[in-house]
Design goal:
This protein has 97 residues and is mainly beta. It contains no helices and eight strands.
């Protein structure tokens, strides 16, 4: 990933806020967009939630101005015990801008 980017991933179908999704976008700035997104969903300035403006469907563990070009890694995976699955997103060692 580079600065100010989103990567959309196909994942096992999951329920979020009463709706089902099979895509999630991981954003370089430390948050995810449930259902995936576009460049319009990428913002380094966090906001109060909920907010009618983009991005929406946000899971924001680290929402700040991160820059993976300075180092670190973005990772995504699916863990399963055979009955249940978990989507795991990781921003390991990604530096702030």
């Amino acid at each position: 990933m580079t600065d100010e980017t989103i990567v959309n991933l196909n994942v096992p179908t999951f329920e979020y806020a009463g709706e089902y999704y099979s895509r999630i976008g991981i954003v370089s700035n430390g948050y995810a967009v449930v259902g995936g997104g576009t460049g319009a969903d990428v913002d380094y300035v966090n906001t109060d939630l909920p907010d009618p403006l983009l991005p929406n469907n946000v899971l924001a563990p680290f929402w700040t101005d991160l820059n993976p070009a300075f180092g670190g890694q973005h990772r995504a995976g699916v863990l399963s015990d055979g009955a249940d699955s978990w989507i795991v997103l990781d921003w390991e060692g990604v530096f702030t801008y």
